[in-house]
Amino acid sequence: MSHPYRPRPISGFPELLPEVRLVEQAYLDKIRRTFERHGFASIETPSVEELDVLLAKGETDKEIYVLERLQADDASAKDARLGLHYDLTVPFARYVAQHFNELTFPFKRYQMQRVWRGERPQEGRYREFQQCDVDVIGVDNLALSFDADIPAVAMEAIKSLGVDDVRLHVSNRKILDGYLQVLGIEDRVTAIRWLDKLDKLGNVPVVAGLAAAGIEFEAAAAAVALAAIPVGDPAWADKARKLAAQSNTTFDTGVEELTTVLDTLAALGIDNVAADLSLARGFDYYTGSVYEGRFINYPGYGSVVAGGRYDDLAGSFINKKLPGVGISLGFSRLFAKLQAEGRLPIGPSTPTQVLVALPSDERRALALATAKQLRDRGLNVEIYHAPQKLARQLTYAEKKGIPFVWFPPFDDDGKHEVKDMGAKTQSEADPRTWNLPA
Amino acid sequence: MSHPYRPRPISGFPELLPEVRLVEQAYLDKIRRTFERHGFASIETPSVEELDVLLAKGETDKEIYVLERLQADDASAKDARLGLHYDLTVPFARYVAQHFNELTFPFKRYQMQRVWRGERPQEGRYREFQQCDVDVIGVDNLALSFDADIPAVAMEAIKSLGVDDVRLHVSNRKILDGYLQVLGIEDRVTAIRWLDKLDKLGNVPVVAGLAAAGIEFEAAAAAVALAAIPVGDPAWADKARKLAAQSNTTFDTGVEELTTVLDTLAALGIDNVAADLSLARGFDYYTGSVYEGRFINYPGYGSVVAGGRYDDLAGSFINKKLPGVGISLGFSRLFAKLQAEGRLPIGPSTPTQVLVALPSDERRALALATAKQLRDRGLNVEIYHAPQKLARQLTYAEKKGIPFVWFPPFDDDGKHEVKDMGAKTQSEADPRTWNLPA
Questions:
Q1: Strand A107-116 vs strand A128-137: parallel, antiparallel, or unpaired?
Q2: How, if at all, do strands A41-42 and A107-116 pair?
Q3: In chain A, which residue's Cα lies nearest the Cα of B46?
Q4: pLDDT of the residue at B1
Q5: Same domain assignment for residues B336 and B364
Q6: How does it assemble (chains A, B) (predicted)?
């Protein structure tokens, strides 16, 4: 037999065995249920956007994949160039602008799709991965209460997976922004990009980087001092105010907003939330609250959830003021770590709950009828495919992790029996009434 | 405000408004439930495959999209070229070969993912679309009963959507293959590709095409005669045997298999099934049963479900005999037609079942607690975002199609009330016990 090509994994494009996929599916279902229970509507956007849309915010560091047709002809050269989306925020902003007249605001949506980035793959970083985003967008203004609702929903979704060691770091871009104004630092975008690296690089290299970017040493050191207030310090507001020394409207608003958001998150009963003034989020479209959730147990692993408030993202595409706040749950990254740490409840490799054994070809009709009776009550049922020895049929069930094997009677006088593969017990049963043990 | 780019739809990449997406989601859930109820396990494969895999069966007419990194560097030139998959069958075959030692056979999987083809978009034909595939693959052999099970599951899935006007056309490649042998036609692949066009072109052009391909006129006319046996003719087997005149093992096996498959489908209670000897399916990897489902009411629309048995698809990648049978439900094509014909039950634009009104900012905590009580019992609940006039809050619910609005008491002596937006009735209710009317 010819096999011209021996398949191998493609680096950065993970795929799962059925038993792991079943867990992934259950987790995605739970996340979806949480989003829906909070009234978010699902949307999906195409996997591609025109390159102009992907580049509208000047994001060129996202390693976009561009599509080329293998058999491109002259006609296709006129088509706009298409790139795979690298996140779900930009497509959402484009969606809102495009369908503005057909949506009711505040528009609350969730979106669970794959995204692509042509980066070098590494632990927790893929070229194709799944994001689960929740965002809300309003017209002209958007209540501050959403700045707590959105991360609360994300944290609840994570908790629904049985994961309780993700800590949400929260800050507000206005704090840093106002503070940098006070310090007289003009190029705040550059400064924030440097401060965002504090975590990875440490204080000294960031001060040096800021200085190299033309910021006076004293101001650079003061900037780092604010970011160095310990994560979760209950006195963060007082300490920040003391460092700022003089009043500044942006700064004051930021401190107030962050205080409100933290208080609301506490009132909503969300655990593991901490003020973190070092949090900047490199993306320049955030304008208020910013969030980042990380594993407490794996501090070096990077964020598994991130987001914030943006004032004019959809406004890049339409002449409206459309403030929004959103968060993105990095599902693939979260899931991969849980898998690597052996924290997934991996079980069967099939959703089948009952395998109906096939006693003989003559009794196939009986097996079919039995399976139908069980399925009609919502059970997942398959019929063994050939009248082989029962030992072989049981081995098949065992290998796939099917919890129950059903034996239709071998002759007209016999009774139906069902075997519990875990408890290794077998008993008479009626296919019209039998159900899974609770 | 700057808006450098005014967004517009991308031809061939459809996207849905929330109220349509909600129906799509419900339909996909039903299809998934049907697949699982029959014991098929979910897998997903990456959106890309190496080009060598995509081209392994010589399929160059599928208009593959190849990925290029926007910021490609010298290092990336060494990477294998990746293309977006154009169906889910080739990735599945590759998956089975790659994970052969980790799977239990017969391996029954379903796969619901997007696929891409860079074709010119037209009615029901997109560049990005959703397929829902069910396949089973065995080692060395695979029971013929699966040739009925697989299309039965697909037809049941379609029926679960309330769609009962799709007819399944069934044939067996061995019939045509053996028949062409009898006729002395050697280039059977070319002949079958021509016969596959009978539907679109009619008899005369196909006879002419066959003749032009070097097939004698008489043989060409005889080939067309078999394919011209009316769809669903109960006497198809006798008529076919009469046309074949002489015995041929391949032909006889094909007639026997098709008879068995049709009988089994009838025994499984699947309606709208018809023998159709004109059915060839251009793909050259089918070796036995072939299926194609089309709307009875829209005969020109093309197939919404298609598949068949293949003997060596995974064998392209591994030195094993891995026969399989599968079917692909063209979800996007099916859904688009239902939408175009006004057959979708389009309702609310949100999954929210209860909107909790916000009487005042002071009573936000009460609204939150009320929402939590309702959510804890599984209801989808949102809280209105600002203490605006009740009329405005009701308008929001109405616009989004939220069926119930909950009024927490305005003062401590008041009672909770709930308004049924459809029935326009309002009554006292307890958030700890209230449920949706059955």
A1: antiparallel
A2: parallel
A3: A13
A4: 42
A5: no
A6: Homodimer.
Do A110 and A254 share a domain, yes or no?
yes
CA distances from A275 to A233, A245, B269, B308 (A): 7, 20, 62, 58
Q: Could you give the CA distance from residue B154 to residue B327 in angstroms, rounded to a whole number?
A: 7
* CA nearest to B405, candidates B366, B367, B354, B358: B354
Q: Which of B65, B373, B393 to mutate to test the interface with A (most CBs of A within 10 A)?
A: B65
- Please report whether residue A129 resides in a domain: yes
What is the rounded CA–CA span in Å between residue B327 and residue B314?
Answer: 16
- What pLDDT, on a 0 to 100 scale, did the predictor assign at position B316? 76
In the predicted structure, residue A426 carries a pLDDT above the cut 60: yes
d(CA A42, CA A91): 14
Tokens (6 digits) for A404: 């129950």
Structure tokens that stand for B5 in this block: 């780019």
Pairing of strands A404-407, A354-356: parallel
Q: Which among B279, B305, B340 is the end of a domain?
A: B340
Among partner residues A42, A102, A116, which is closest to B21 by beta-carbon distance?
A42
- Burial environment of residue B438 by CB neighbours within 10 A (0 to 12, 13 to 18, 19 or more): exposed
DSSP 8-state class, residue A40: P
Total domains in chain B come to: 2
Helix axes B173-182, B249-267, angle to 10 degrees: 160
Question: Which domain range does residue A403 map to?
Answer: 354-428
Q: What is the mean pLDDT of each run of 10 residues along chain B (438 residues)?
A: 68 96 98 98 97 77 86 65 94 95 97 95 92 97 96 98 98 94 89 84 92 91 92 96 92 97 96 93 82 95 95 84 96 97 98 96 93 96 95 97 96 92 96 93
From the CB of residue A348, how many other CB atoms can be counted at a distance below 10 Å? 17
Question: Domain boundary at A285, A306, A340, which?
Answer: A340
**Residue A48 is nearest to which of B10, B143, B145, comparing CB atoms?**
B10
Q: pLDDT confidence of A283, banded at 50, 70, 90?
A: low
Q: Residue A76 — pLDDT band, cuts 50, 70, 90? A: low
How high is the pLDDT of residue B411?
84
Residue A109, exposed/middle/buried by CB under 10 A (0-12, 13-18, 19+)?
Answer: buried
Q: Binding site for L-histidine: which residues of A?
A: 87-89, 117, 131, 135, 281, 285-286
Residues of chain B positioned with their CB less than 8 A from the CB of A360: none
Distance separating alpha carbons of residues A158 and A30, to the nearest angstrom: 9
- ipTM value: 0.95
Judging contacts by C-beta atoms under 8 Å, the chain A residues touching residue B351 are 36, 39-42
| Complete DSSP assignment for A74-89 | TGGGGSPPEEE-S-SH
Residues B360 and B331 in one domain: no
Cα distance between residue B6 and residue A429, in whole Å: 65
Residue A110 reports pLDDT greater than 80: yes
Please report, to the nearest 10 degrees, the dihedral formed by the alpha carbons of residues B13, B18, B20, B21 taken in order: 70
**Which of B27, B44, B153, B395 is the best substitution to test chain A (most A C-beta atoms within 10 A)?**
B44
Number of Cβ pairs < 8 A linking chain A and chain B:
273
Tell me, what CATH number does A71's domain have?
Answer: 3.30.930.10
Q: Are residues A416 and A379 in the same domain?
A: yes
Of A80, A79, A159, A141, residue with least CA distance to A312: A141
Tokens in use for A10? Answer: 């493609």
For residues B96-123, one letter each, b for 16 or more C-beta atoms within 10 angstroms of the residue's C-beta and e for the rest, the string is: bbbbbeebbbbbbbbbbbbbbbbeebee
B381: CATH: 3.40.50.800
Beta-bridged to residue A295, according to DSSP, are: A166
Cα-trace Rg, chain B: 28
Residue A1 has pLDDT above 50, yes or no: no
Omega cis (within 30) before B106: yes
